[in-house]
Structure to design on (574 residues):
């Protein structure tokens, strides 16, 4: 499933409600209860689909289903972080989920994960092991196992994971997906159960790079209410000729297939115009050791330690051992580790002077579920060899498929990495690597007629300006409207109520502004009643979305139709 394919179906009359009917049956037929920790009843999802159907169809993600890792909040659905005793039910969506809904997408379920996002394997959960959608003998990858499997099985077009040590990339490698790990702080983490709060990133799984790129434009928003969110300036450029880093020494943990697949990826990158440059990966891999051998492991205890101490019986055994081993780091050791990390980062800066991006194995090797269960700690540690350092060193990354091992049974992948802010250009290169035609996204802005406090220079115009609205024209409505001035209510200033009256109406002055679809949806979602958005007829005969009012809006309001518009009425008052 991908966004383009779904949009084509919708253009032919298919509906989100019909999609839910199809998906629910597909999930039943797939018969893997370990994918979802929370899957709402079909009737609930049909209600959500109905809400989407009432939204403007030209929203960028209209009708696109997604799955949410169960350490990310969805209003009204329990968040467990794969620990039943930890569960709570949030009243608000995580900020990233909210942005996706405003853009027309809708969640269909909460995905399984390694408990408290501690692991890269997908087996550390009391909810069962989600099957790898390609070959059930092999690991699904973690910690975002359910999120990845849901995309690979065709239940959604994309999903949300989280990534601290590789959880947004390893499952992508094992299930033939795109796994975008954004620059730290580019996406809001508000509404996420933290693993290592200073390092955590919400990540995106998709079948197409173009889908991940589209989602990135919607969710990559600064959030002033998230202390770790930051303004990330898009930077970097990868042209027709570029340099990519290939480590002088790579350890594939004895895997018989992955070295050859990596060599194939190098050749593919060369065919795209890349020149391989041998680099010393030591500062990166040494930094990686700090994540679990240094004080950052104690940050996991800071996140859930109090709960673990009070509920030790509720913790998955492997997870419990890891969390309890994180205690005991003192302030001196913490500062010493920070100094070491800065030293490694400075050494890494010299590497970036030689190359534009890194091409790395996402994992050294492949493991079956049985191999991991037989040795849960060592196998997990090996899988993180080329992922653990990326958030510590503030890198952006995209994991992409690079072929199949074990006689075509088991997917494996490579990761494209670059400094912070290179997300868009990495995704562009990833699309070329995967053979996609990366067409620049053409914005189809939505017109909006305003006729009151949102007019330029008036009290509420900032709500348009903050959303990047572009002025189109000053205009008048057709002569079929009456206007009323509703009195101020608390912090809300007086507002006009525009009501259509074909028999005794008049033309009202207004302005048409244009908004990106996501910004339009966000704007509309915050309009308080009795106002709403409907089609308003202009003097030119064009109908555009604009403010209209329910009949109750005239109660206690002054009719001001004779002024011909809000500005004229305000001038008359003065």
């Amino acid at each position: 499933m991908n966004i383009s394919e779904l949009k084509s179906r919708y253009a032919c009359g298919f509906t989100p409600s019909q999609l839910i009917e199809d998906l629910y049956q597909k999930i039943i037929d797939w018969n893997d209860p370990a994918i979802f920790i929370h899957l709402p009843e079909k009737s609930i999802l049909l209600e959500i689909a109905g809400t989407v159907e009432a939204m403007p169809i030209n929203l960028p993600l209209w009708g696109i289903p997604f799955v949410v890792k169960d350490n990310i909040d969805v209003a009204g659905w329990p968040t467990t972080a794969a620990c039943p005793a930890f569960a709570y039910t949030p009243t608000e969506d995580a900020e990233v989920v909210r942005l996706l809904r405003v853009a027309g997408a809708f969640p269909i379920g909460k995905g399984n994960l390694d408990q408290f996002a501690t692991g890269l394997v997908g087996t550390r959960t009391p909810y069962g092991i989600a099957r790898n959608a390609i070959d059930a003998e092999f690991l699904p990858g973690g910690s975002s196992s359910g999120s990845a499997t849901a995309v690979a099985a065709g239940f959604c077009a994309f999903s949300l994971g989280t990534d601290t040590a590789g959880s947004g990339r390893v499952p992508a490698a094992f299930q033939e997906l795109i796994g975008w790990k954004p620059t730290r702080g580019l996406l809001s983490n508000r509404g996420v159960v933290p693993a290592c709060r200073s390092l955590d990133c919400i990540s995106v799984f998709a079948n197409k790079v173009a889908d991940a790129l589209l989602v990135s434009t919607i969710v990559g928003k600064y959030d002033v209410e998230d202390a770790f969110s930051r303004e990330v300036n898009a930077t970097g450029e990868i042209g027709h000729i570029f340099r990519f880093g290939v480590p002088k020494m790579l350890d594939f943990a004895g895997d018989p297939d992955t070295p050859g697949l990596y060599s194939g990826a190098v050749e593919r990158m060369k065919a795209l115009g890349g020149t391989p440059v041998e680099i010393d990966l030591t500062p990166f891999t040494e930094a990686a050791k700090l994540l679990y051998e240094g004080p950052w492991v104690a940050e996991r205890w800071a996140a859930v330690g109090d709960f673990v101490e009070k509920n030790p019986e509720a913790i998955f055994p492997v997870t419990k051992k890891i969390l309890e081993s994180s205690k005991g780091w003192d302030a001196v050791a913490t500062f010493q580790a920070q100094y070491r990390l800065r030293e490694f980062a400075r050494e890494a800066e010299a590497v970036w002077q030689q190359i534009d991006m890194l091409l790395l194995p996402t994992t050294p090797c492949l493991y079956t579920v049985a191999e991991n269960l037989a040795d849960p700690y060592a196998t997990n540690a090996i899988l993180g060899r080329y992922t653990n350092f990326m958030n510590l060193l503030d890198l952006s990354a995209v994991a992409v498929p690079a072929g199949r091992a074990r006689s075509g049974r088991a997917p494996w992948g490579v990761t494209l990495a670059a400094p912070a802010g290179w997300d868009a250009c990495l995704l562009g290169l990833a699309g070329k690597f995967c053979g996609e035609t990366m067409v620049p996204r053409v914005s189809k802005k939505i017109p909006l007629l305003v006729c009151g406090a949102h007019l330029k220079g008036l009290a509420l115009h900032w709500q348009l300006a903050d959303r990047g609205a572009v002025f189109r024209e000053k205009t008048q409505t057709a002569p079929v409207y009456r206007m009323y001035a509703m009195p101020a209510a608390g912090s809300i200033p007086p507002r006009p109520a525009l009501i259509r009256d074909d028999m005794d109406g008049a033309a009202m002055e207004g302005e048409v502004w244009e908004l990106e679809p996501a910004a339009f949806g966000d704007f509309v979602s915050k309009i308080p009643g009795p106002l709403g958005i409907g089609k308003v007829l202009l003097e030119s005969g064009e109908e555009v979305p604009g403010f209209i009012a329910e009949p109750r809006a005239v109660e206690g309001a002054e009719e001001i139709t004779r002024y011909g518009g809000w500005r004229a009425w305000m001038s008359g008052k003065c």
Notes: The longest helix spans residues 331-352. The mean pLDDT is 93.
